Amino acid sequence: KAGIGTGGTPVSRNGQLSVSGTQLVNSQGLPVQLKGPSSMWLNWESKRFIEDKAGIQWARDNWNASVIRVAMGVNESGGDTLVSNPTGTKARVNQAVQNAVDLGMYVIIDFHTSKGESQKQLAIDFFKEMASKWGNTPNVIYETFNEPLKIDWGSVIKPYHQAVVDEIRKIDPDNIIILGTRDFSQEVDTAAKDPVKGTNLMYALHFYSCTHLQWLRTKADTALVLDAPIFVSEWGATHADGGTPSNPNLCLEEAQNWIDWMDENWISWAAWKFDTCQDKSCYFTSSASTSGNWSSSVLYGHGPFVRDRMME
Q1: Is 117 a catalytic site residue?
Q2: Residue in 224, 235, 284 with CA at minimum distance from that of residue 258
Q3: Known catalytic residue at 129
Q4: d(Cα 235, Cα 250) in Å, to the nearest integer?
Q5: Active-site residue, from 143, 187, 234, 254
Q6: Collapsing DSSP states into helix, strand and coil, what is residue 143?
Q7: Dihedral of the alpha carbons of 290, 295, 299, 302, in degrees to the nearest 10
Q8: Which of 147, 167, 187, 254 is catalytic?
Q9: 273 upstream amide cis, omega within 30 of 0
Q10: 297, 296, 290: which is closest to 37 by C-alpha?
Q11: Strand ranges (DSSP E) for 66-225?
């Protein structure tokens, strides 16, 4: 569904995206469903998959990927984060964005934290810089707060988003902004009842299919009825911990129920996580190259399922 028509790249086919009602639409006003991979936390990547232009191009041409999500760690321990190494971290983000622009793909710049409410000025400064650099391209989508915790929407999360949105909009008036929702981006219904002011805003919904069942789709249906546009910026066919070695189940039947729901509602998605690791939500075995040409033998965990859904 990513791209009405044939030929060209996702961006050449669809151009500037916007929100109409609950629907992501292209420059002709036609509905669009983007699909693609989310990176690992950049500071914890085992290999630089999301920054390798050849691999992203291969995913575009062979898996039908139309969007990538760049999950930038903000201040977590381990590796380079925005706080510990701002220059290097932003360089990696910018490289991934430049690759997406060169390849005619959409790209989500994700402020990947669960503590954004205490990092508001850092987020404002970061997104002002990103908007100044990339806001004139139709490729870029901003995700301002990955997964807020169980904190109040109306008095804490919403004002944070409003402040960041307002600063982005001073520079970039139109590119899509995805807003994380309460309780690890599950309570889209709460956000729908008290929305952030602005245009071309969408609300993040995250699911892991062994943990998040029909009850979460019901919450999402409530949000849609209340005219809240949804973007599933992270999901896995695992338990909510990402399918760690102590919790390695895949729940593909329930993941398919989610896929069917997203297809029915033309909801775009990015699937966690484009890397090699022991978690079953990683796509690849350790032998996989970052540069593409991935046979089934180097796919791992829910990787084959994600690939097949991307290709549909």
Answers
A1: no
A2: 235
A3: no
A4: 12
A5: 234
A6: strand
A7: 120
A8: 147
A9: yes
A10: 290
A11: 67-73, 106-112, 140-143, 177-179, 201-208
